[in-house]
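stuck on this one:
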Amino acid sequence: MSLSLLSAYGVSALALPTSGVVASGSAGLSTTVPGNLVITQTSQNAVLNWQSFNIGAAESVQFIQPNMSSVALNRVLGADPSRIFGSLSANGKVFIVNPNGVLFGKDSSVNVGGLVASTLDIADSDFLTGRYQFSGTGTGEVNNQGRIQSSDGGYVALLGNRVNNEGVITANQGSVALAAGSAVTLGLSADGLMQVAVDRAATGALASNSGLIQADGGAISLSAQAKDALLASVVNNTGIVRANSLNYRDGRILLDGGDSGVVRVGGEVLASGSAPATSGGTIVATGDKVWIDENARLDATGTHAGGSVLVGGGWQGADPGIRQANAVYVAPTAVLDASARQQGDGGTVVAWSNVRNPLSTTRVYGSLLAQGGEQSGHGGRIETSGRWIDVAGVRSNASSPNGKAGVWLLDPDDLTVSAAATTAVGPPGFFGPGVGASNIQNTDIEAILNTGTPVILDTASGGAGTGNILVSANISKTAGGPAGLGLFAAGAITVGPGVSISSSLGTLDVAFNSLNGVTLGAGSSIASNGGQIVLSGANFTNNAGAAALSAGAGRWIVYSNDPSTNTFGGLVSGNKAIWGQDVGTLAPGAVPAGNRYVFATPGAVLATTSGVISKNYGQTVSVAGAVTYSGTPLSSAATYGNVY
């Protein structure tokens, strides 16, 4: 039936879809009630071509379909955008394709099994065989200002060059996708949720949300691929994106800007589990550049366990399924939270930029949380990494009130800990390159240690810098429970002259691991208040004297290659050294009790005459003449303990 006769019912030509033709499948069209178009679909899939597809404010269009899996493709051939101001309903799924644009007005109501609104076309053959591959050059926009709701487990997808939600979109236990580009593929994953791939970029592509998108127990994706976007936003959220976890499935949220442009995240991005025994979900925000805006909240907390908040990449950039950003900025008032609320372990929070890019930067000034549950559970893990990082005033907490603390990992190329304050860099320069070694103010480290969160400073991930770590200011733990400080360097580790690392409240485990050497400057000291001190490097240089290391009820262990290249500075273990081992073959926990030196070089004794014995490290034992040993220790001049 042609809808060109609808005017005979007194309906405005722009109020309802016009000139409808069934191009494939089977469907009947009727307007028994003026202003109400009913499309009765009797085939599983149907293709309908229209001259226009509009619904006036007082009008309605209803699809009656065989089942929830039935799909009706509605293609607009005319030159005008589609304007949906009234009601659209269906028990199955409805596709609206109009290259000139699709607008859902602020008072519109859409209640369907599933919806795709697109300015990109799809071939009939692809549609009928379930290959949902959309492409085109339409310049119109898809914009929702009203209310769109799919049935539970259904989906809503807005596709085109520019897509925007200002209203409310709901698809609980299902999927919502806003995808901007010139080619997009939709598919279903094994768990029944929709997968979205932006296959080709578009000039001026933008996916934005200033309203509410909700898919509890499901997945939400805002993705875009733009041509030459530079510093323009391609994904922008200022509203609420919510995919909270349900008992049987965690929520997932992806904000992906592709290889060009900026992903700007404001408002609230929620993948939390607030019901009993639920875990936090997963939030991923990535692209070429990622901007976490002032007052933004990315929440993957859970009553039973924390989830994941991943900005710019996965942990250590090791997840191949997450695009690595080249620059990341987290504003001072932003919060990234993957804590466990009641029970269970804290989750994972990452702010990462690609360490293989020599210009990558990670500037993190907000709050990063991965705390263990209040009743039970351990702390989670937090990472801020990039070739160059700045964390001025950052607030990180991976502690646990009733479990073991987690960790905060910082992983730049080169690193200095100093008393100099760095200034948080905001717009517009926050994506610019860093200069010199990354600097971390000592008070920022102290604040994290005082929460009971261990801190790891790591330059050993293979960047192009020297990999050196210099501690030029005191680090003093003065509050909180037990904590740890780890320095792991591809280069050298140096504690500057007069600098102390200490704890006056709670134990502080200290671990240094350098591929080169560990140097303690004159007048420096490490005092762990009962914690364990482990220093490992190719060589050990102690210019701080006999009191350089103080572990109280704990102990210290110093690993090095060969004592002949060390400067012991009067630091005596009082116990025999261990030979032929290093930190990789003999872990600190396996070293016998007491302060110890451990040398990688096996000990050897060379007897040059029957009366003189000399020791050359790293050589075999050769004896010429009789050697008598009565059991008295062979002394090493008391520089590193006795050698047996």
In short: The helical segments are 124-128, 442-449. The chain has a mean pLDDT of 91.
